[in-house]
C-alpha cells in the first residue's frame, strides 16, 4: 500500500487532509517539518504533502532535506503564495507540484494520485 505523510501546522486542515487520504493510503500526519523529518528517519513514504509556511523549519527547508536524503520520495507543496517565479523555483528544487491555498480538495486528491502513480499505485487499486 502506498504511503503519504501530511505536514501541516493548521490542525483543522491537517485532520481534513488526513481523513481525505487515510482510506486510500497508509497515512500519517505531522504538525511540523521537524516532526516530519523524525518520521521520515524511521519510515519510508511515497509522497510528502507539505505546507510551506510553518513555525520552526519551513516546508521549503523540508523539501531540501527530503530531496537530499530521500530522493525517491515525491514532494507536493501547498502554499498561500500565488507567484509564478516562486512556483518555478520550487519545481526546480524538486517539488512535484505546487498547490495554492485556498484549494479544492479534489485538486489535492488528483495531485496526490498523480504522484502515487510514479510509485506504482493509486487509490483505484
Kindly describe this structure.
The chain has 125 residues and is of the alpha/beta class. It has a single domain (3-118), classed as Response regulator (Rossmann fold), CATH 3.40.50.2300. Helix content is 46%, strand content 20%. It contains five helices and five strands; from the N terminus they run βαβαβαβαβα. The chain has helices at 11-22, 33-42, 59-69, 84-93, 105-118; strands at 3-7, 26-30, 47-51, 74-79, 97-100. A five-stranded parallel beta sheet has the order 2-1-3-4-5, with helices on both faces. Strand 1, helix 1 (11-22) and strand 2 (26-30) form a beta-alpha-beta unit.
What key attributes describe this structure?
125 residues; alpha/beta; Rossmann fold; five-stranded parallel sheet; 5 strands; 46% helix
Give a topology summary.
Layout: E1 3-7, H1 11-22, E2 26-30, H2 33-42, E3 47-51, H3 59-69, E4 74-79, H4 84-93, E5 97-100, H5 105-118
Parallel strand pairs: 1-2, 1-3, 3-4, 4-5
Helix pairs in contact: 2-3
Please describe the biggest sheet, giving its number of strands, its sense, and whether it closes into a barrel. Answer: 5 strands, parallel
Report the portion of residues in β strands.
Answer: 15-25%
**What is the rounded Rg?**
13 Å
Q: Look at the structure and give the mean pLDDT.
A: 93
Q: How is the largest sheet built, in terms of strand order?
A: 2-1-3-4-5
Quick one: CATH superfamily?
Response regulator
Q: Extract low-pLDDT stretches.
A: none
Question: Number of folding domains?
Answer: 1
Classified by CATH, the class is: Alpha Beta
Number of helices: 5
CATH topology name: Rossmann fold
Compute the separation of the termini in Å: 9 Å
Shape: globular
Number of strands: 5
**What structural class do the secondary elements suggest?**
alpha/beta
Shape-level CATH architecture = 3-Layer(aba) Sandwich
Helix content: 40-55%
Amino acid at each position: 500500500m502506498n504511503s503519504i505523510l501530511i505536514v501541516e501546522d493548521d490542525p483543522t486542515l491537517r485532520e481534513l487532509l488526513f481523513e481525505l487520504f487515510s482510506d486510500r493510503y497508509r497515512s500519517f500526519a505531522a504538525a511540523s517539518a521537524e516532526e516530519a523529518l523524525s518520521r521520515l528517519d524511521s519510515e519510508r513514504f511515497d509522497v510528502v504533502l507539505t505546507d510551506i509556511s510553518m513555525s520552526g523549519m519551513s516546508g521549503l527547508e523540508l523539501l531540501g532535506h527530503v530531496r537530499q536524503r530521500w530522493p525517491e520520495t515525491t514532494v507536493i507543496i501547498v502554499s498561500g503564495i500565488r507567484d509564478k517565479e516562486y512556483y518555478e523555483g520550487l519545481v526546480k528544487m524538486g517539488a512535484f507540484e505546487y498547490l495554492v491555498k485556498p484549494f479544492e480538495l479534489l485538486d489535492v486528491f488528483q495531485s496526490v494520485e498523480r504522484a502515487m502513480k510514479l510509485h506504482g499505485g493509486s487509490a483505484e487499486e
